[in-house]
Amino acid sequence: MSDVIHLLPDSIANQIAAGEVIQRPASVVKELVENAVDAGAQQIQVHIKDAGKTLVQVIDNGKGMSETDARMAFERHATSKISTANDLFALQTMGFRGEALASIAAVAHVELRTRQRGSDLGSKIAIAGSEVESSEPDACPEGSIFSVKNLFFNVPARRKFLKSNETEFRNIINEFERIALVNQHISMSLHHNDTEILNLPESGLRQRIVNIYGKALNQKLLTLEAQSSLVTISGFVGRPDSVRKRGALQFFFVNGRFMKHSYFHKAVMQAYDQLIPAGEMPDYFIYFTLDPATIDVNIHPTKTEIKFENEQPVWQILCAAVREAIAKSSSIPTIDFDVDGSIDIPVFNAPSSTFKAPSVQVNSDYNPFKPDTSYQQPSFDWSKLYKGFEEDRAAAFADESIEAIYPENQELSSGLISDPAPDALFPEVSSLCYQYKGRYIITSLKSGLLIIDQHRAHVRVLFDQYLTNIRNQQGVSQQLLFPEIVTFTPAEATLVPSLLEDLRYIGFDLSNLGNNSYAINGLPSGVENLDPVALVKDAVSRAIDTGCQVHEEICDALALSLAKAAAIRPGQSLSSEEMDNLIASLFSSSSSSYTPDGKVILSKLTDDELDKRFK
């Protein structure tokens, strides 16, 4: 039998390896920008076209490469950053594996123009699918210019499964921001389709954060500092009153490298325990500096997973540091009286002989329940106003059908849907409703009791209403007297233009002001008392969470976000008419048993279950 095991060609091996290192255009940006940082660049420019599918170009003014180094850089496991295995435990650079450029060249058309500092002439090399197409001298500026074109041109399956341009570019922005947050001493810029997205001059850390995420974040950050023989922790954490349910800015960096660490995230959340509502998330930008020998970054090719030798002590130091930062802040307001320029009022010390205790004269004959004969109140029989009221109500509910219980054209001040259709699930619903603890509505059935969560029920009703408005393109907008301004992060701003039409169908009226800011000119009817900025930000964040792939999913996310914000709150008292109309509207919805996100709305307690409780 002949031998069947053979070595794969380098080109095929590089394509296979590229699957781990180069997963999407954002991976190319990450690897090339990190190489520019390692090269000592002080200025880095990133140019993107079609979310990186057509072009990813990184220009830096680093130390550049010689002609030989430029050719060797694209060989697999070729690197200048480590020489021995021991160097892995003393890393001072972002890259070290020697796989990135070889993986990129295996799945794209790559052109490198580079010139060393002090050299008169540079080099230009072009590679496509791991094959060198040309190599020649070139008159280029000092540093390096990497141009990656037609990513995954020879791997159509990978290119087919790339996400939409909005999603891919948002991932590029995320990678760019992570590198920018630890290299504030480097001037960096990002352009997409010849439009400048970010321009970050050299600055301090707080200013770099503000330049990326907006000035509004500056007042919400608390300084974090902790130093020990084991680790030095610095950075910023968010104020307890600035938390949010989604879209929180949460970053961990260790020795200048971004990392994901769920265990340390729990330490931060532990420090905020009892200070923020359940489900809310704080912002944080936390930087660890420690001996490279005590961590292992060689876990995964993406290098975002890092193991710590002293994980438990670092956890305790981090938690204590965050608590101290919160305690030192002015999150709890204090009363401080200004005594400058106040008048000095002398104390009056009266002689004891002249002091007389005050006395109160009381009329012992006064009786508040005794009628005052001096004033004759006109007689009026108030009972006449209510005469026949109970009889009319009983007659209205004599028929147990749902049509008699919920008459037509019944409207509520809370904005619940009127004119519902009958529901076949609970045709025997009683007309009598009771509210329990401002949260549940209890009504009787022929076969037992029905308990309804009023908030979830209203979410379902409003969700159907908003979704219908989007599909029918007939949202009702209430114009604001004074427009509000909402500012998005660069990652959020890439998605907003694709959501404007759907937001308009719900009832939002937004106009672009430039610089990632929008004016909120109108809101959906019924939510005028809510925070407009928070509503829009929450809607966009929820749409981002869907992945922005299917239009129907985005519409559902927008409708659900607004429904949750506009629904009646737990604890709100409802009148009998409001409870009746809410139940009727619920039973006319597309699904009366569950909310759009799968939470139970109804719970039925049968007569048999009640009988068992009293046996």
Automatic annotation (TrEMBL):
Keyword Lyase (UniProt): no
Record-linked InterPro entries: DNA_mismatch_repair_CS, DNA_mismatch_repair_MutL, DNA_mismatch_S5_2-like, HATPase_C_sf, MutL/Mlh/PMS, MutL/Mlh/Pms-like, MutL_C, MutL_C_dimsub
One Pfam family recorded for the sequence: DNA_mis_repair
One GO-annotated biological process of the protein: mismatch repair
Domain DNA mismatch repair protein S5 positions: 209-327
Cellular compartments per GO CC: mismatch repair complex
Assigned keywords, A-Z: DNA damage, DNA repair
PROSITE patterns to which the protein is assigned, alphabetical: DNA_MISMATCH_REPAIR_1
Residue ranges of domain MutL C-terminal dimerisation in the record: 432-574
GO molecular function term, any single one: mismatched DNA binding
Domain of life (superkingdom): Bacteria
Coiled-coil parts of chain: none
Family, per entry: Belongs to the DNA mismatch repair MutL/HexB family.
NCBIfam families, sorted: mutl
Purpose of the protein: This protein is involved in the repair of mismatches in DNA. It is required for dam-dependent methyl-directed DNA mismatch repair. May act as a 'molecular matchmaker', a protein that promotes the formation of a stable complex between two or more DNA-binding proteins in an ATP-dependent manner without itself being part of a final effector complex.
Protein name: DNA mismatch repair protein MutL
Organism: Macellibacteroides fermentans
